[in-house]
Amino acid sequence: MGDLHPALSCEVNIADDGAYRFYLSPSGDFEVMPLVRRVVDLAPSVEGCEILAFKPPHEINSDAISIRLSNGSVTSVNGGEVFFTLFPGPLRVDIIAHFESVTDDDLFRYGEIADSLIERTLGELEVMIGVGHVHVGD
After folding, report:
1. Whole-angstrom Cα distance, residue 44 to residue 47?
2. What are the residue ranges of helices labelled H in the chain?
3. In a 10 Å sphere around its CB, with 0-12 CB exposed, 13-18 middle and 19+ buried, how is residue 24 labelled?
4. What is the pLDDT tens value at each position of the chain, 138 positions in all?
5. pTM for the structure as a whole
6. Spatial distance between the Cα atoms of 65 and 75, rounded to a whole number of angstroms
């Protein structure tokens, strides 16, 4: 993927029917969105595989969710430990993520966790188009 563009990435999931689903992602880069769509349009049809644009939303419950952070570490978050306040604007929604306990030293880490939870809940395309700023609050 990186040969086409450095921001282009792929997530692979196995569907309930056993088919492989390849989700092409622009990794948050708006300029790469047309490339993602073009690659999906030109992808060959392969039995047992689906190639789709953008990471989809996932159902999130109150169980612990594992999230890989940019530094490579993995952290777990319980869905009941965070809630969100939305501030609709004219074009996008700004979001404040509230966690049970956050120190100033943890703001970046919790920001990554909030971003990941929001993307998993809404799906990548909805976040890119509809979400403005995400802040961590108390």
Report:
1. 10
2. 33-42, 107-122, 124-130
3. buried
4. 657 889 999 989 898 899 999 999 999 899 999 999 999 999 999 999 999 999 999 887 767 788 888 888 888 887 678 889 999 999 999 999 998 878 888 888 899 999 999 998 999 999 999 999 999 986
5. 0.81
6. 8
d(CA 107, CA 58): 25
Looking up tokens 């929001």 gives: 118
**Nearest CA-CA partner of 55 in 8, 127, 123, 122:** 123
Amino acid making up residue 86: L
The sign one gets for the Cα dihedral 107, 109, 110, 115 is: positive
Q: Is 126 helix (H, G, I), strand (E, B) or coil?
A: helix
Tokens 């169980």 found at? 63
